[in-house]
Amino acid sequence: MSSLKDICSGLPFDPLPPNRGRDPSMPHAPIRTPNLTAEEERLALRNALRYFPPSHHPTLAPEFAQELRQYGHIYMYRFCPVLRMRAYPLDEYPCRTRQAASMMLMIMNNLDPAVAQFPQELVTYGGNGQVFSNWAQFRLVMHYLSEMTEEQTLVMYSGHPMGLFPSLPSSPRAIITNGMVIPNYSSRDQYEKMFALGVSMYGQMTAGSYCYIGPQGIVHGTMLTVLNASRRYLGSGDLSGRVFVTSGLGGMSGAQAKAAVIAGCIGVIAEVDEAPLRKRHEQGWLMEVTSNIEQCIKRIREAKRSKTPLSLGYHGNIVDLWERLLLEFERTGELLVDLGSDQTSLHNPYNGGYYPVQLSFRQANQLMTTDPDRFKTMVQQSLRRHVTAINKLSDAGMFFWDYGNAFLLEAKRAGAEVEKAGGGATEFRYPSYVQHIMGDIFSLGFGPFRWVCTSGDPQDLAVTDNIAATVLEEISAHVSDRIKQQYNDNILWIRQAGKHKMVVGSQARILYSDQKGRVRIALAINQAIADGRVSAPVVISRDHHDVSGTDSPFRETSNVYDGSAFCADMAVQNFVGDAFRGATWVAFNGNLMGEVMNGGFGLMLDGSEEAAKRASLMLNWDVSNGVARRCWSGNSNAYETIQHTMEENRQLRVTMPFPVQDEHVLDRALQG
Description:
Layout: H1 4-7, H2 38-49, H3 57-71, H4 98-110, E1 123-125, E2 129-130, H5 135-147, E3 152-157, E4 160-166, E5 174-178, H6 188-197, H7 216-234, E6 243-247, H8 255-263, E7 266-271, H9 274-283, E8 288-290, H10 293-306, E9 310-315, H11 318-332, E10 339-340, H12 349-353, H13 361-370, H14 372-395, E11 399-400, H15 407-413, H16 433-443, E12 447-453, H17 458-476, H18 481-500, E13 507-513, H19 515-531, E14 538-542, E15 550-551, H20 569-581, E16 585-590, E17 597-605, H21 609-632, H22 636-648, H23 663-671
Parallel strand pairs: 3-5, 5-16, 6-7, 6-10, 7-9, 8-9, 10-11
Antiparallel strand pairs: 1-2, 3-4, 12-13, 12-14, 14-17, 15-17, 16-17
Helix pairs in contact: 2-3, 7-8, 7-16, 11-14, 13-14, 16-22, 17-18, 17-19, 19-21, 20-21, 21-22
Domain Urocanase C-terminal: 440-643
Pathway: Amino-acid degradation; L-histidine degradation into L-glutamate; N-formimidoyl-L-glutamate from L-histidine: step 2/3
EC number: 4.2.1.49
């Protein structure tokens, strides 16, 4: 039986572990189609064999070649550990520094089968969000971390551990970059080739930065989005009897069912793949499941009538569901849906992220590998049908938003009617959830702050929950009504979090907080560790989808209208600034498809004064950077927020914009 000591001892060469291949009981990533030439196949194989002494090449080369041709990538299944992947308590990891152990814990949580979407392919979420490119990299990283001292930094190149390099005790213990591709070569086709060659990978956000905490994070974000959408579109935060229709129950989208019920509405979520549907039902996150579309319509009516919160999973294609809801409206005049969105993985539309309505799940999986061009055509046809139904229901009074999954972007590329007359480069017929719902919240400094109790003890999590709620309650007594609403939403969330049984994998929690709240929560938790009220260190982090962490013109920065939405200075500055202000590790992810740049961090609190200093310095920067940028772009919420922050911290000095107050000045200048 394998142990933590075994997987931290490096690559096993003598003897090689048996090749068990893929575990048929686990879900697996779609087959990739890199379309390598014969020479590129040789290069991919040569690159993979670099990890092993030449004496093993005759054994490994044929099986790696088979993996490449059968699955489109060399995952090195032979080296997948037998040991159950999960977040073991910090003290169980064989290492020289607890900072390294905290990273080991977070890595193993990302690969926990209860957490990861495709564990054996090292995919945490999103269909292609890799932790590593292959299992040799995992074993080498665990080995390096077990031997690391506090005067070394692990350098990671797109899943590959370049090695341990001398550094200062104050330096990050790991610097991670993923998908850093020269812009002219950043495309889907190049991404598939580079990943197959083993030279780059897509880390999504918290997959490649080792900071994913399961779907809890997006449960909270989705709950806040639905609540604030209801306030904006329906005029009330009371969602009883209101219907929210969307799609996806996978790695992140699976949170939608739980979020809908917590928000108090009727959530109807379509999913074509039975495995995640069944997983969410068994978790208790999905209350009911049906593959009968007429039963689905019947249950929507019943729940609307009784105003009973419900999460209903429809095992079928979202396009069929939208078209059936439209048919019901055309037949009866009754609009059964109030709010709509979509969480299919359209950042990856042609390799399992979106399933066209014309095909069954099995047929689609076959066609995407046997005839990729025909599959692409069918995806685009499906997207046009998808949008047509949404447009007609929207005209009837439904409110729809893009969830930042590239739905509207890919629909536009497919020729669907999503153009906005007179709209800017990042605007469509429907807003993104950042533009209309969450963007102003980001500009107030609120975003997804999270922490992980490394003891693995639920009691530690309960203590930190209470600490966080108490801190937020104290702050909320002295803020404006607009900010108080956000605090109240999060106080309610954190007070009820234990009851909702959010934990999947590590003992982790998430809430939305502004700069002041994040710093005070971190310092209070650090003090609780020092006092012994929390039994072991706590790792603090955040989603990259935050105030400062991501430059993404169709999502996080879609409400930036000064022309800089396509610029990535903010995310790069955040990564660099976090690194020298005290982060335990930092990560920066490029998107090999050329759509986004994002960064994140992990910081271990151990109860020391040094940890408190690091947390205060780094968290203040981590929020202020993005608020300052949003202020400069012209956002009034961000202007007020950064102005107030400067008043509280005299060392902070931000360049403030002077807005043009008279548009005629521009008219006269340009006419002259």
